Amino acid sequence: MDFTKTVDSLISDLFMDLELATDDRTHPYRHGYLATTQVDHIPAQRTIIIRRILPGNEILIFTDYRSPKVQEIKQQPQVGLLFYDPNKKLQIRLQATAKIHHQDALCLREWSKLSDHRKTDYQTTLPPGADLLEEDLVSSHDPTLGSNFFSIISLTPLNIDVLELRPNGHQRIVGKYENREWTGRRVIA
Ligand SMILES: Cc1cc2nc3c(=O)[nH]c(=O)nc-3n(C[C@H](O)[C@H](O)[C@H](O)COP(=O)(O)O)c2cc1C
Predict the structure, then answer these.
(1) How does pLDDT run across 85-109, given as a tens digit for each residue?
(2) Phi-psi category of 89—alpha, beta or left, where left has phi over 0 and alpha has psi -120 to 50?
(3) Which of 48, 71, 137, 152 has the smallest CB count inside 10 Å?
C-alpha cells in the first residue's frame, strides 16, 4: 500500500481491490474467512467467496438459507471477516453488521445472474450439514426447489484493521465506518 496517501483513501483503494476480487477467481481476496458466533457462544469460522461489493461498501456473500451460519447471524449480526494477500503480506480484518436476505428483490436479482450449474449449490434436497445416508454417495439435487434456499449475507462494515508486513517496518491502519464514511488513523503495528 502507498502509505503516503491519506488513511481514508487507502481504505477506499482496498475496497476497490475487494471489488476486483468479485470478478477474478485468482485474486487473493476472492476467498475470505467469515466468523460468526454460534448459539452456544463459541466462535465459528468458514471460508466464503465475496460475490459483490455494492455502493456503501456493502459486501455480498451467497449462502444456503438452511446453513447454520444464517441462524447464527440472525441471533448475533456482528461478524468478523478476514482476508490475507500473501504476495503483499497484507491482512485485512473487518468487523461488520450482517443482514440475511431471503426471497427478496436482491436475491431475485442475483439468482437470475447465476448459471444453472451454480444454482444447484442451493438445491440440495437435504440441508447443509445433514447426515448422508449410507445409500447416498452424493447429496441429491432437486432443481424444482428453484431459489427457495438461496440467500445472501450482506455485510455493512463497522471497522477495519489493515496490517502490511514490511522488511523495513510494518505498517498498520485502523478505520471506523459511520454514516457511509471512513475515518481512520495510523497505529503501531
Ligand atoms: C473455497 C471455499 C469457498 C466457499 N464459499 C462459500 C460461500 O461463498 N458461501 C457459503 O455459504 N459457503 C461457502 N463455502 C463453504 C463454507 O466454508 C462452509 O463449509 C459452509 O457454508 C457451511 O458453513 P456453516 O455450517 O458454518 O453454515 C466455501 C468453502 C470453500 C472451501
Answers:
(1) 999 999 999 999 999 999 999 999 9
(2) left
(3) 137
Distance 2 CA to ligand 1 centre (A): 33
Q: Measured in angstroms, how far is the CA atom of residue 47 from the centroid of ligand 1?
A: 5
Query: Is pLDDT of 141 > 90?
Result: no
Q: Determine the residue type at 160.
A: I
Grid cell, residue 61, equals: 456473500
Whether pTM > 0.90 for this model: the answer is yes
Report the distance separating Cα 152 and Cα 27, nearest Å.
Answer: 21
What domains can you pick out in the chain, each with its CATH number? 7-125+153-187 (2.30.110.10)
- Region 123-128 average pLDDT: 91
